[in-house]
Amino acid sequence: MDPIPTANHPLPSLASLQLQYLGKKLEDLSTPAVVLDRAVVKKNCDAMLDVCEKLGVGFRAHVKSHKTLELSKLQVGTGDGEANFIVSTLTEAENLLPFLLECQSNGRESSVLYGVPPAQHAIPRLLHLSSKLTPGSVNILIDNIDAFNKMSKALVEGQIGVFIKIDTGYKRAGIKISSSKFPGLVRKVVGTVGEAFRGFYSHYGHSYAGSSEKDAAHGLISELEGLEEAAAEVDEVYLRLLKRKMVLTVGATPTATAAQNMLSGSPRAAEFKTLLNRLKETYAVELHAGVYPLLDMQQVATHARPVAGRASLTKESVGIKVLLEISSIYDERGKPEALASAGSLALGREPCKSYTGWGIVTGELGNKGNVVYDERGDKTGWIVGRISQEHGILTWEGPEDQMRPLEIGSKVLVWPNHACVAGAGFGWYLIVDSEKDRHTVVDVWVRWRGW
């Protein structure tokens, strides 16, 4: 079997896409289409890098949300800082390989972490990747001693790094520190891979359920405390032999972006800084996050960052929108509705806790002049109220006398509930830049395909 089967998922010609789209106005394009605002995305990326630098922690960028080379580069910034990534699929790592090689040839430290405990069939492809990069550049997660025993010989021979995945409450992957199997797992992994043991990893995915800055900060602190407890299981003799500090890597977009609140002088920020400074004396602390460059309605609903400031978490900080066309109007129904040219395959069927719809229509293009639905306010405006596979029903919420009717053939933009799922229905992103013209295509970014 070809160890890198990316040829099975060929990408479209970028040159052809650019000929089709560059300079075109959004209102003239076929729908559905997915649009990224480069200015907003870059601002979100810069804010994350900035807070990590100010806190003195590392950052590992997850690429699963967007699956593009261009945005991956924005996530790690320019210069000679570390370029460390997380992937959810092997094809993401394989498509990152040329950039990782470029970084390493220029003396820039770079690595990739396969962000789920790997299935056994993944090992040959991971070994192939590892053979192309400097030793220890490819890393995996382990949370089960039997799975580790099946692959341990290959990991050692392939010089693949290992993190132990800790379940800090999300109950997806990971081992609980309270498990009777945890001490044995730590001893086995550390004793087998030695210097290739990297540390402990936690994904605080249940932070999406939070609804405030306080909730997100609590999650961030809880994660760090949990990994500190996990690290205490590693023998101090081994710690003294390590050439580098053991890594504690924590995050999910709500908790990682909440780190930006920790630069304030609040009591919660002071608690966090005290904990962080203590941990940094012994460990290397690292944040990781994925959807933060794009954001979406689920992220806005966490209210993980204050409204004020350049890093505020509002609908205006969402960098992804889906372009739809109005196909039909139903003004004789109980409340005004319209048929739009995108359904669950373009928007996803991911709910959002802050409202009952599947996307919120922005105040641009064909919806210009209408009030935009405010899920925390008077809940008046157009939303995607229902979805089928290929079409959606826009519904007007609130008093009808405040509505400006939509027109058949007009285009609207929608903030989706979940950016990762919305993007998955498309082969490429159309790029606009709101610092220049938010409705003219200035670039095209091709998405990677396959697993």
From TrEMBL:
One Pfam family this sequence matches: Ala_racemase_N
Residue intervals of the D-serine dehydratase-like domain: 319-433
Cofactor requirement: pyridoxal 5'-phosphate; Zn(2+)
Swiss-Prot/TrEMBL GO biological process terms: D-serine catabolic process; response to toxic substance
GO molecular function (one): D-serine ammonia-lyase activity
InterPro entries: Ala_racemase_N, D-amino_acid_metab_enzyme, D-ser_dehydrat-like_dom, D-ser_dehydrat-like_sf, PLP-binding_barrel
UniProt key word Lyase: yes
Catalytic activity field: D-serine = pyruvate + NH4(+)
SMART domains xrefs: D-ser_dehydrat (SM01119)
UniProt entry tagged with the keyword Transcription: no
Gene3D superfamilies associated with the record: Alanine racemase, D-serine dehydratase-like domain
EC number: 4.3.1.18
Enzyme class: lyase
Family: Belongs to the DSD1 family.
Function: Catalyzes the conversion of D-serine to pyruvate and ammonia. May play a role in D-serine detoxification.
Name of this protein: D-serine dehydratase
Natural source organism: Didymosphaeria variabile
Lineage summary: Eukaryota, Fungi, Dikarya, Ascomycota, Pezizomycotina
